[in-house]
Write a structure and sequence with these properties.
alpha+beta, nine-stranded antiparallel beta sheet, 3 helices, about 20% helix
Length: about 240
């Protein structure tokens, strides 16, 4: 005779294949963002300024991309933003890896950083950021709000589970967080910082505003102090114990 299962079975659940996206805001960011905007527009207009790198080959339209040495500049406004971004990332790296304070003290952070000026009709095609473990986007100015364009200039992360929506019915069409699937859209606001694994595919949707949409982006990678910052490297923590 078949055994009747209990009405409330003792089930456990694992949040498998999850990708973290951390979100925070820089308080009282208005004055700093105004100064950053002025600097970025002036630097774009200065045709005599030598670039430290050429733009990437990611498909984009009506987007100015600076060189990748932004956080190396000595301007106090840039230094303040760099400190905010990298200190937030340090907290993320410490907590998500379970590092102790002594382990964190032995890790050095490296980063490429740049800014984007996106103008009307501009977009950036889907891409990820190879050769880094973490990436970040900080919003200096989201540009104009356009009422009938809900994803105007949005930062969109693309669903990474390629077969997630291969079949939909009442059993899986309405999963709740954190198990929902589909693209994830952020309509950025001034002072907002997103930190995410560099492997995540993302894009900036078509921007319809009149004034510039301005963001700062960076890629970061970490090495034990004394190790080269340019060589791919994985630390085996088991060997340290």
């Amino acid at each position: 005779m078949a055994t009747v299962p209990p009405a409330s079975p003792n089930l456990s659940v694992r949040n498998a294949f999850a990708s973290p996206i951390f979100e925070t805001y820089l308080p009282d960011c208005g004055p700093l963002n105004d100064r950053l905007k002025g600097l970025f527009l002036d630097w774009e207009a200065d045709t005599n300024r030598k670039r430290a790198s050429v733009p990437t080959d990611v498909a984009r339209l009506n987007v100015y991309e600076s060189d990748f040495a932004l956080f190396n500049r000595q301007d106090p406004e840039v230094a303040a933003l760099s400190q905010f971004c990298m200190s937030c990332l340090s907290v993320v790296v410490k907590n998500i890896n379970g590092y102790s304070s002594s382990e964190m003290a032995n890790i050095k952070f490296f980063a490429h950083s740049w800014y984007h000026l996106t103008r009307k009709g501009g977009y950036t095609a889907q891409h990820n950021h190879p050769m880094a473990s973490w990436s970040g986007v900080y919003c200096v100015d989201p540009g104009d709000f356009v009422a009938d364009k809900p994803t105007n200039g949005a930062l969109r992360f693309l669903e990474s589970r390629l077969n997630a929506a291969m079949y939909l019915d009442d059993g899986n069409a309405h999963w709740r967080d954190p198990f929902t699937f589909g693209d994830l859209v952020f309509n950025l606001t001034a002072g907002q910082l997103l930190l995410f694994p560099s492997y995540l595919m993302h894009e900036v949707t078509l921007y319809h505003g009149e004034r510039e949409r301005i963001t700062v982006a960076f890629n970061a990678w970490m090495r034990e102090r004394g190790a080269s910052g340019d060589v791919p490297y994985v630390r085996n923590r088991a060997q340290d114990r």
